[in-house]
Specification:
Elements (H helix, E strand, L loop, with lengths): L2 H22 L7 H21 L32 E7 L20 E8 L4 E2 L6 E5 L5 E5 L3 E7 L10
Antiparallel strand pairs: 1-6, 2-3, 2-4, 4-5
């Protein structure tokens, strides 16, 4: 299975399980948001990271905002591990990628995957259907693009310029 398939399987997992998880978690006002972030990160580590990097010595950047359960770490498992790889997005089949927020074309180089979301007409929300991808560039500017317009790839982080403590 390639990286694109693995990340898309994660998106399908979110679609299939979201309603059940939402019904079990307390509301955002009652602390449910932290539990939701922990659940997303834990599943990202087990269903994506562990499948892609089976050697146990390579780690992906965290999913979305990351977990809240381990203090300063955004990880659930191995909280002191440092990210060695990142998931990036490239245009699918050479197509142009459009930012849904601005309507402008997104430069396809160096776009990190941040999370999946749903487009509400103005911004993304973390709720199914997870049909958009939130990306960020090297300046931490976010772009929201249609899932169908991108392909997921993996890149090693340069330990001297891109290393991120997680």
């Amino acid at each position: 299975m390639n990286v694109d398939e693995i990340v898309r399987n994660f998106q399908q997992f979110l679609e299939a399980s979201w309603q059940s998880v939402e019904s079990m978690l307390p509301s955002t006002e009652e602390g449910g948001e932290d539990l939701r972030l922990d659940w997303l990160q834990a599943n990202w580590e087990r269903l994506v990271e562990a499948v892609i990097q089976q050697d146990g010595t390579s780690f992906l950047e965290f999913y979305g905002e990351g977990a809240e359960c381990n203090g300063g770490s955004c990880r659930v498992w191995k909280p002191h591990a440092e990210a060695t790889h990142r998931i990036c997005c490239v245009p699918k089949d050479g197509s142009e990628v459009t930012d849904l927020v601005t309507g402008g074309s997104v430069e396809p180089q160096d776009l990190d995957f941040f999370c999946f979301g749903q487009w509400d007409g103005k911004w993304y929300v973390t709720h199914p259907p997870f049909n958009v991808v939130v990306l960020s560039d090297s300046e931490c500017i976010e772009f929201t693009v249609r899932l169908e317009d991108v392909r997921f790839e993996i890149q090693a982080l340069d330990p001297y310029t891109d290393a991120i403590k997680v």
